[in-house]
Each structure stands twice: as structure tokens, then as C-alpha cells.
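RESIDUES AND SHAPES:
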Amino acid sequence: MTPDDRAGRALAAVIDRVTVTEAEVGARFPLYADPADGRWKTTGRGSWTGGFWAGLLWLRARYTGDAAHRRAAADCTARLAPWVGADTATRGLIFWYATAPALDGSGAAELRAQAARACLDSYDPGAGIVPWGAALGGPRLLARADAVPGLVPLLAAAGPEGAVVAAAHLHRHLDLALGPQGAGSGSRPRPAWEFDPATGWSPCADPAPGWSRGEAWLLLAVADALLHPEVAGRRPERLAFAAERLLARALTGRLVPPNEASRPRGPVDTSAAAITAVALLKLSRAGAPRARACERRAVAILRRLAASHLSEPGSGRPPGMLLDGCYDAAKGLAVRHELIWGDFFLALGLAALADLVDITRV
């Protein structure tokens, strides 16, 4: 079997897994699944991951061309509408990935425009970000690596003002996470910061530097910015520095990284690997430095995930599960599980290789 055959078979298995998941969860949203039997932990409203389930349903609709699958994706996307007014920067994850793969005429574009406007209105000029927000609990004025991907293209779609805020939001996160331009490349990005109007920004202890998914999220946000000239044109030298700094790690080391760099023998995170693969595919098409190396690395990651981390028929669990995802190692939560966003990014990367989607637009 050739590598292309393996990628095609892997995509078919992930799509089939979507249908099995749909039958299990009904109108709820899958979050993570037990690696032993594939049973899903679900949420009623979707939390910050709901967009990935809607996005998977759209990828299935594109793959099969089935009208019933298109209706299911549209219905799931519509159920996310209450999050438009939620106080959280994860609306970027929710609404970009739920709507960007959608087919025309489904109402997804209208929902995306509403969410973009709401996020634009949430921008805090003092902090220089769309705040992490209070909708998910905890401090509101946080800058976290997972608050940037999705939000950059979502804001960019809101016109010139949206592009300005997208760039400001991105660069504040990059300035905090990576430090000043010209700083040494040996240190790991610091993924989370808290803002105090009186004293400014201070780093958070958790997640700690070396969080592989945080680095993947930042790389994905940089890739999205480079694909939007109206965003990339603001502080282009800073964006180029960030791309080089993040690529220095993304193009080297283990294809499937440990969840925490400080624990190289601890749990890996296949979802971080899948996000990185998608980011690298985008960078390969964005005219970024080392574009060919980005594409080769992305393909190698996707092949490794398909060959070594995807459940197969006869394994005693449903086939098509992307195993070995790590949700939250610090809390011991779902550290070797199937994660809905891991499934989504694996499917998106494989669908891009199969020309089912234009990766520069999703």
C-alpha cells in the first residue's frame, strides 16, 4: 500500500468514525472518548470544542456529498448560535472551524459574520486583546495561546476594522509568548498571561512553557495571519520572526510531541501534532520561508498519526479513533484519549491532501 493509499484509508476511517459518533451523541457535542471502548464524554452546549464537531460534520458532508450529511452539519452549526454573545475568545475556535468548511447556502456564513462582529465588539484596547473572557470560568483578562487560532481569520472577515484588531490581538499574544524580537530562540513560548490594569501583564504558571499544543496553536495563528494580507501587512517583520521562531521547533524533533517538553517520557499529544500538520500545510501555501520543508513535515506527521495512532478494525474499539491525545495533564484529565479537536485537525489535514478542501480558506 502506498503512502497515498494509507492517507485515503485513514480519511475514510475518520469519516466513518464521525457517523458512529453521531449515532452515539445525538444532539449533544462530543468532547473526548475513552481509549478502551470509544465511549464519548459529551457536553450539552459544545463548550469551546463545539465548532470542531460541526466542522467534522461538514468535512463528512464534503467527503460523501450526501444531502442528509449536509443537513446534519448545518443543524449542528446552528446549535452553536448561543455562543455568539458569550464572553470568551474561544469563539474563534467555535465559529471559525464550525463555519469555514461549510458548504454555501447553509447559513454558516451569516453566523460567522455575527460572531466576528461580536468578537470585534469585545476587543479591550487597554489589554490589546479580545479577552479570554469569563464564560468558561476563571479570570477574564487572560491572554492564552488557544485564544488566537480561529479568531485571527474570524476577525479578518469583519472588514478593515476587524483586520486591525486581528493583528493587534495576534501580536500582543506573540509579544507575550515569544518575548521581544531578537530574543534567544532557546526558551519555550510562555502560553498564558494575566492582565492587571494597574500593573500590566504577568505570566501564569499553568499552562507552563513547553506545552506542545500551545506552541501548535500559536503556529496555526501565525499561518492564518500570513494567509490574510490585510493582517500580515501589519508588523510583517514581527510576524516573520514569530514564524521562524516557531518553525525552528515544528520542523524538528518528534513527529508526535510530548504534551510537556519537561516530561519527554510523559504523555504525548496527537492533537498537537495534528494542529501542527495543518499549520505547516497552510504555511507551505502562504509563501512562508521553507515552504517545501513545511509541506514535507506536515505529510510526515499525518502519515505517522494514521499509521501509529489511529485505531484499526479488530482492535476491540471503534476504528478511526485518533488515540493518544492529551487534554489536561496537570489535572490528569483524558491524557491518552481521543479528542474531538484532534480528530478534526487530522481529518482537515487528510482532506487537504485529498483536495477536498482548500486549506488556505479553512
